[in-house]
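Narrative progress, year one. The postdoctoral researcher (J.K.) led the effort to move from monomer predictions toward full complexes, under supervision of the PI. The following entry was the first complex the group processed end to end, covering 817 residues in total.
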Amino acid sequence: MKRFWHVRELSTVAILVLEIIFFGWYLWPEGNRSHPFLNAENALLILKYSSIYGIAAVGAAVVIISGGIDLAPGSIIALASVVCGVLFVDAGWGLTSSLLVALAVGLGAGGLSSVLVVAVKLPPFIATLGVMGMTRGLAFIITEGRYFDLSSKLQGGWRPMGLPADWVAPLIMVGLAIVFQVLMTRFQWGRQIFSIGGNETAALFSGVAVGRIKTSVYLLSGLLAALAGVVLALVQGQGKADLATGYELDIIASAVVGGASLSGGRGSVMGAVLGTLIFGVLRNALPQIPGATFYDRLIVGLAVIVIVVVDQLLLKRGE
Amino acid sequence: MPGLEFRNVRKSFGAVKALTGVTFAVAEGESHGLVGENGAGKSTLLKILAGIIHPDSGELWWQGTRLSLASPREALERGIGMVYQEMLSFPNLSVTGNIFAGRELTARGGRLLETAMEARTAAILDELHLRVRPRARAESLPAAHRQLLQVARALAFECRILVLDEPTTALTDAEADHLFAVLARLKARGVTLLYVSHRLPEVFQLCDRITVLRDGALAGTFEAGNVAPDQIVRAMVGRDLPPRAEHEASGSFGPPALAVRGLTRRPGFRNVSLSVAPGEIVGLFGLVGSGRSELLETIFGLHRAEEGTIQVGGRPLDARSSRQAARAGVALVPEERHRQGLFFNLSLRHNLMIPARTIAGDVLIRGSREREETDRLLAEWRVRAAGPGAMPDSLSGGNQQKVVLAKWLATKPRVLMLDEPTKGVDVGAKFEIHEIIRRQASHGLGCLVVSSDLPEVLALCQRVIVMREGRIQGELVGEAADEESVMHLATSELKDAS
């Protein structure tokens, strides 16, 4: 099975590499002008914006592998950015304490999802659809139509732990991807998530603490969505209630492109993060193609289908 | 008369050769038994006949013309009806909806002709002597009726060949008799029957001829009148089976492995008391619906008892989850290995290690240690599998069942509860599973075996507890337990009506 994942992730990497090669070739500049796509600055830009999706995708992938689904990340991202903004900008709290409260709010939203799924036994789709609406609503109630400008309050040379600010989000994403990849494949916790996703009844009949594990999964997803929201607030320098609209579906698409099965029991955290990079490159490169401005959503949608179909064909041939 | 012919049918799945050139004929109007161990190729053959999979080479002929079945629908249209082991019904649809699913009677424009379909359904139900309303939802029907729905569906399609794959697995004897009566009437009407079952007495009762498959090849076709069951079994396994082991006297000391007092959970079971000594194999017999599975699941912590106590190894157990019960030394090999026993997305190693490592409260997965232990378990219980990395769906039913058994034995339980441990398992694997249970009991494990297979209960258990409608009807020990006495208890009226 380990080899299987290995292959799945390799195919995701291959798609990413092909994509970069394609855009590198397509956007090759005439003469001696610098390459608009293949340059270090742009790479960092892609990583920075992808990491908002990527951080949340780690949690979303774990939920999907457990056989569930989480529709709340987009709203939680917005709520976390707003909470961060209202405390840091309006209430004049310190940055660290504002961030921590925003994370706690995300954890609370995840907790609500988990109670609805585990204790009330709602289908995850319904439970998280409700939480999605409530968290988005809460964000609007807090902002009352305003938006919080964090950038003006953040000093220009803000260097957390001595690192350039732009590097922080990508590093968090990569770190989380590695940590949770290991947790999912080498720890009992991860194996129990795979077992629940594969066959929840059998998990129950095998002494797996199904309720406890599922609770942890939704809590994690809420927490990581809030972390993504905090990162977004710092990257974009603002807290707004209508941020990250529809991100939940992009995040789910990334997980699926990265090899996750929506029926549960299959997938990988690393694959989901790579999936967000695939979409990140698309979102970055497409607007640079003259005349493609209005095509990017269409192409992104098409890409989901093409990648998953190609993946399935590869998988079939490998069997 | 040329009936249904299989001519040199071959089928491989990757490296696995499921059928290696099978040739045999079923005469028209005959009832023909098809037997073989799990993995012998019966299912593959049936799937080819149902148009679900296509043979690599070879041909199917029916009444002198070649059948090439592109899809299940085409098989149905050619008059081949299937009754599957796992009941493929639409629980959310009515009886009529189930019978006509996919071939509804419609007026022009696609409007459904409900009345016509219901009238036809009523006629078919009548023919089957089934007292069911055409509008009843399938999920409200008992298992036996849902099974007969598939027969009804085949009738509605005017099928000429009816294929039945282990149709009695979930049925009680009375229900099975009803099914056989229906089949006899169909046969009298000239329907050709192809009957697949592990239960040889049924095959002998029903069939004119019996074809045996072994390892994907034909092992022979026999006239049912001229062959003894032992010969069929030998043809199936390709060797003689060892004689049944004698019961060893169970000298038990110390507290019982499992003691249940006054356990009640309405409406499943009431006031159940029983005990299992270490090293003892106790049978729990009762007809389907007598509350046996729910009792086991309650002891295993999956349900809460309303009243009563459970003790394991002398210590009270008040489990709120299967995890707690398993930690206290209770193991349950559940009835449905597909639904309750195995993770088909995980390799055998993970399947085998999940209960033991989970209840031990480990944090890390130690891969190399687990692989070693898996190798040991697979060898010890003679699971025929490619290795720890193999996936469960590459195993035959008997070997899958051994995996479920082995994963619980790896937890070193005090009491092992088995719910229909050899359901849908071939004869060879059945003996091996019995051997495993006996061996574990001789090492001091207390075993509680639920089975609807009375010969199995009698062969395996020193003591048989009989349940009926959620109550313990009585207990029979040693010689006193025979088919007649047990069935008498299981079917007679309640002793006291309180």
